[in-house]
Amino acid sequence: MSRPGSFFMRMGLTPGQIAMHAFLLACAFAMLFPFYWMVLTAFRPSQEVFSATFHWLPQTFVGFDNFREAFAKAPLLRFMANGAIICSGILAVQLLTAIPCAYALAKYEFRGRNLLFALVLFALCVPVQVPALPLYMGLAFTGTLDSYFSLMLPFFLSVFAIFLFRQVFRSFPDDIIHAARLDGMGEMEILWRVVVPSASPAIAAFAVFSITAHWNDLYWPLIVVTSPELAPPPLGMMYFSDTDLGSSFGALMAAATLLTAPLTILFLFAQRHFVQGVTMTGVK
Amino acid sequence: MTMVLSSHPIGRTPRRRLGAEIAPSIAYWFATPSIILLVGTMLLPIVVMIAMSFTDYELGALDFSFVGFDNYVSLWGDKTFWRSLLNTAYYVALVVPASVIIGLVLAVMVNGLKRGRRFYQIAFFLPVTSTLIAMATVWKYLLHGKIGPVNHLLTAIGLPGMEFFGDPSLVMPALAIIGVWSLAGFNMVLFTAGLTAIPQELYEASAVDGIDNPIERFFTVTLPMLGPTTMFVIITTSITAFKVFDTVAVLTRGGPQGASDVLLYVNYLEGFQYMRIGLASAITVVFLGIILLLSLVQAKVLERKVHY
Fold this sequence. Notes:
Strand content of chain B: under 5%
Protein name (chain B): ABC transporter permease
CATH superfamily of the largest domain in chain A: MetI-like
Number of strands of chain B: 0
Largest interface: A-B, 110 and 100 residues
Domain ABC transmembrane type-1 (chain B): 85-298
Mean pLDDT of chain A: 86
Strand content of chain A: under 5%
Organism (chain B): Pseudaminobacter soli (ex Li et al. 2025)
Low-confidence stretches of chain B: 1-15
Low-confidence stretches of chain A: none
Number of helices of chain B: 14
Order of helices and strands of chain B: HHHHHHHHHHHHHH
Order of helices and strands of chain A: HHHHHHHHHHHHHHHH
Radius of gyration of chain B: 24 Å
Transmembrane segments (chain B): 26-54, 89-110, 122-142, 170-198, 218-242, 274-297
Number of strands of chain A: 0
CATH superfamily of chain B: MetI-like
CATH class of the largest domain in chain A: Mainly Alpha
Oligomer: heterodimer
Largest sheet of chain B: none
Keywords (chain B): Cell membrane, Membrane, Transmembrane, Transmembrane helix, Transport
CATH architecture of chain B: Orthogonal Bundle
CATH topology of the largest domain in chain A: MetI-like fold
Structural class of chain B: mainly alpha
Mean pLDDT of chain B: 84
Shape of chain B: globular
């Protein structure tokens, strides 16, 4: 006779563990319910949305009708392409500027180093909403509002990246740098070919962190962008939900599904970097 | 990653650096792009912003004059400003305890599992990475007064349905629910890092002392050891919650009847919709002051953490 008890025990499932799983599954259900509801509604006909009864699954199958409607109503792919352009532009400049600066702070002795580091620490605390007004005015006066450049400008400098990479570079052994110098490598070459590859986990974690932050940012795009064809996903979503919402919850949820999908997929493939990225903000 | 979280003593071990041997000009070349950006997109704008808070400048106006503290005086007497400050504080007071406690409980329970940790970590972290604006529209639907499943649930268990975004007394709690949902997983990850840093011997020692009950163990070992992490998470969450803007801008626009006016939203309206740059700058100065105060507390906490 098989004894389920011993089977559970072998699986490491004591009554205490089972109780914890039950509790956590209930929590996971609550946390994931909005995602479920979003996808469900994206596949439901609109009359079901307004019915007063609750159903776990669509009662009539409408296929991708809501998605077709969403695409017809707004340039969703354009929004996503904008998000990709903005995120990659920001990330590229952030890495190109922050890495050398962090290396200088970590490994060189120069006048003003402590002042620079103090300013970095100060800037770490300042959210984008603080310099927003003068930046907006500067862009307005130079006629560069409503462009990709204006969308990226405030984020080109990441003091968080400087702070983070400085920590990582500090632990890079000086002897290796010395040896590379004796081999006749230039300082620039040492940085990019010897030191940077060793920091790739931190760079990956920062990249994921940066992409998430700027893909999801609403505040700054809302301020500088007026033409819909430049809108990144959150702003596009806002336009979308502003146009007649009442009749088409299905299309709205289809749009939400599409615009959340890229980051969700990125997250599922790079969870480790995400988690590391969060943990690193612990120093922020 | 725990190493990074537990922070570094900054410049505590003075050791000779490599750069001392070579011309430091290369260091300046390395730092220059960042310095230009730091000055141009951060420091200079802040100085300009503070200066503008003492003027009556409006965007598009041809001239302006210095008005001293007038903007601050009019803020002091402005009902909308105080309401937005109170609403923001109310939001922080709702979101911080809930998201910190949920984050802590989830971290401790997931950490105590023998199997399936990864699954739960993914499930709880998913809301953090999702595009909040998109998910906010989903939440608006979930909490909808007539067709929202939350109201279906409420009526099913015999409670009256609630018009979350139409009722001035319910709108901040409704926004807070979304805030907690999007932050709890973040806090869970921070607590998990704190938990893995607790030495196993402490648990063994507590077992020797006869503490076997998991709840007792949580209060005698885990919680005290998580003290600094908890402080840190509380302040980080406070800063994030204080910056609430997205959900307000998309879902409520300050309504109904100004019940969800929050500081950054009012600031946004003053500066970028009504173009009253002087007044908006004064609000921004207040905002910056509060953020810096919170950051100062955070820095103190981090400093203390080093000594643990």
